[in-house]
Each structure stands twice: as C-alpha cells, then as structure tokens.
C-alpha cells in the first residue's frame, strides 16, 4: 500500500507546526519528536469524535475527520512496508467500556488489552508493549496509567538504517560558537557527491542541508541555520525543503567562499584530475525527550476533548469519554555506522609526500560544529519520520576508541 501525497503533507505539516512550537527549555540540551508517531492516533480519535472536538482534531490532523481513519491505516501500512521501520497501534480498555464495533474494527490488527484498574499490572503490560514495538529503545510508556483510565490508545514507531557509506571517527575542538573549546567526538566523511549538501533560502534565513543516505530508503537530513535562527525555524525550514517549498542550491552550483552556514567552497591543487569533493564533519549524538501533548492541546486538537464535563467520542464508545493524559517519548541516535530512532505515544481516555600539483579541484567543507537540527526522511515519499535538535554534543571520553554505533 502506498501513502498518498495528501497524507504525507498532513503529517509533515504537523511536524513543521510542532517544530515551530518548541520552547527554549525543550531544545537547550537536545530533543527528538515524531509527528508520524502521534498523527495516526489523532486521526483515529478524529474519526470517533463528535461536535467541536471532531472539528479540532480534524484541523490538527489536516484532513476531514471522515477521511482520517482510512488515511491512518494507509500510513501505518506504508510505514510497515519500509525496510527497517516498524509501526504499531495498541488499544487497552476497561471491561465496563462498551466500544463501538465500527471504530474498534477500523484499527489495524495489533494489541488489544484490558485495563484492570491495578495500576502496576496495567503499567507493566503497556511498558512491555512499548519496549517490544520500539526495539527496546523506549522501555516505558510515556504517561503512567491512572486508576481512572477507561481507555488507552497507544502508538509505537521504530526505525533503523545503516549508512551507505560510513563515517570515520576522530576528535575536534570548535574554535567558535556555543561549543567553542570543547573537546568533542567528531565524525568525518569525504565523497565525490557534492550535491548531497545544499543551501536554501527559507523565510527565517539561510539553511544548509546535508543528506546522509541510509540503506533502507530512509535518510537523515542534518540542518544548520544562520546564527540567530531558532531551532523551530531551522526544523520547519528543513521540513519545507523536504516538500520543495523553496529552492535548494546544490553543492555543484554553490559559489566560492562561504555560501551557507557551516560551508566553505574553495579550490585546491592536486596531482591528478578529480571531481568536486565534499568533506563532512559532524558529531555523533543521542537525544531523547518526553512531551506532554496536553500542554500544547491546541496544536494537537485536544483542547475541547480534554473537557471532562461531557463526552466527545460518541463513535468510540457508548459511554462518554474525554482525553485525560496524552504524551510521547522519543529518542534518536546518529553514529558512524547508521541511525536509529523510536517514538512511543499514548492518549489516555481520560595523507603522504607533497606531489606535483597540476590540477585544480573544487572542494566543499560542510562542518556542523554548533547546535543543529535533523530530520529522518523516507526518500521516496518525503515523509518525515522523526525530527530533533542537537544541543549538547558528545565529549571525548577515555574510551573514545569504542564504537559510537551499537
């Protein structure tokens, strides 16, 4: 099954809005989030909602509510079809809750469980499901199950890809910027593919984008903005670039000098002719974050649905339901061999000698030595699977020779 362009635009639109809504405290040390992980849950809720809550959820999803469940099923099937990517939906309900058959049968096959009211027992069941469906990257459901929970609708997303060409590891000490004078682990790679890097003029400023290709069709885009650009502006600019909202000037068309953030284009002399060279320097990273989705209820269309004075989901259950807790846990790791990421979301109801240098060769240096953003993107559909910000790089440790990628 293929995911439609309409669904991709809807999911990426939520990614962009979420990025713009990030607060300074959330990104200071780094963060990760996945709109692709929360979007199907919101879509299924929109399908089962009524009244103002239905309209708000439809606006957050970016599709008419009557089309949302079908689009969610399409998206989950498409995610499962991507090598190295897995997606799952789980539903747990109290025995006293009377589910509407049409809504429940519209969920994809997966976990169906019972909420017993024993908090420790129910939490253990949801935690085990989370660990299983995120390949152990997230061990606990991001929100604790309460005794008052009538329903828990959960989603899990995990992805793993290996670089087509690995990086080599060394060290670096940035001379400027927020990481100045820090001894950091560095990743380096050189290639004859200068168009893997490019510069775009976004509404917030110039943005350098480096595409690191994975062997599963999932790539990671590293994003470096101009000084002064906020993390949300950098990430939203990257999402816009994925959707071709603004032109990207590839490496082979960049002028000499410093045409973009972190970029230097120059001429060097070589003993033999070579194609243009791209030299990349970045840092490995692991970022993780917890997000309270109810704290930004307007973004996720949950404001009305959280009002427990009456029910908002007549097509989900006979009994009245409101949204209680909603949260996401996300993690992402970028290393010399590859990338992995996961998200769990729950909505609770409730060198040599100097040769003769005869040839002039264009060389591009792309250096990510200050805070930067990243997107994990499915190459064919341009669906953004995960996003985040790198604020604190890894320092050099005594065991720095050990593998960064495990």
Q: Could you characterize what this model shows?
A:
The protein is of the alpha+beta class. The protein is 23% helix and 33% strand. The protein contains 8 helices and 18 strands. The protein has a 7-stranded antiparallel beta sheet. The chain has a 6-stranded mixed beta sheet with strand order 3-2-4-15-14-13, sandwiched between helices. A 5-stranded mixed beta sheet has the order 5-6-12-16-11, with no helix packed on it. A hairpin with a 3-residue loop joins strand 14 and strand 15 (338-349). Helix 1 packs antiparallel against helix 8, helix 3 (35-48) runs antiparallel to helix 4 and helix 3 packs antiparallel against helix 5 (65-81).
């Amino acid at each position: 099954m293929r995911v439609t362009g309409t669904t991709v635009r809807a999911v990426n639109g939520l990614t962009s809005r979420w990025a713009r809504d990030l607060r300074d405290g959330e990104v200071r040390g780094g963060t990760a989030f996945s709109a692709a992980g929360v979007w199907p849950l919101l879509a299924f809720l929109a399908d089962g909602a009524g009244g103002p809550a239905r309209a708000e959820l439809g606006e957050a999803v970016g599709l008419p509510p009557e089309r949302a469940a079908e689009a969610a099923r399409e998206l989950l099937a498409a995610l499962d079809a991507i090598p190295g990517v897995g997606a799952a939906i789980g539903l747990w309900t109290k025995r006293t809750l009377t589910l509407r058959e049409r809504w429940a049968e519209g969920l994809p096959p997966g976990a169906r469980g019972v909420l017993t009211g024993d908090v420790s027992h129910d939490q253990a069941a949801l935690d085990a499901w989370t660990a299983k469906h995120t390949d152990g990257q997230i061990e606990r459901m991001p929100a604790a199950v309460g005794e008052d929970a009538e329903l828990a609708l959960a989603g899990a997303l995990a992805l793993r890809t290996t670089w087509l060409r690995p990086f080599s590891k060394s060290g670096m000490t940035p001379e400027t910027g927020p990481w100045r004078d820090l001894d950091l682990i560095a990743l380096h790679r050189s290639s004859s593919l200068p168009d893997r890097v490019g510069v775009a003029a976004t509404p917030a400023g110039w943005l350098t984008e480096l595409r690191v290709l994975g062997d599963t069709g999932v790539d990671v885009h590293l994003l470096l903005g101009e000084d002064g650009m906020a993390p949300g502006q950098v990430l939203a600019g990257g999402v816009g670039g994925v959707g071709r909202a603004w032109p990207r000037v590839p490496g082979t068309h960049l002028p000499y000098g410093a045409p973009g953030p972190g970029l230097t284009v120059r001429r060097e002399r070589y003993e033999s002719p070579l194609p243009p060279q791209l030299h990349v320097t970045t840092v490995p990273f692991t970022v993780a974050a917890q997000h309270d989705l109810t704290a930004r209820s307007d973004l996720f269309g949950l404001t009305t649905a959280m009002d427990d004075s009456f029910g908002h989901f007549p097509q989900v259950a006979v009994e009245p339901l409101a949204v209680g807790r909603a949260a996401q846990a996300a993690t992402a790791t970028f290393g010399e061999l590859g990338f992995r990421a996961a998200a769990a979301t729950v909505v609770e109801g409730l060198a040599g000698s100097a040769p003769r240098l005869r040839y002039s060769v264009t060389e591009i240096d792309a250096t990510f030595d200050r805070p930067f953003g990243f997107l994990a993107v499915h190459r064919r559909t341009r669906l953004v699977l995960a996003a985040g910000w790198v604020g604190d790089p890894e320092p050099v440790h005594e065991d720095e020779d050990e593998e960064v990628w495990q």
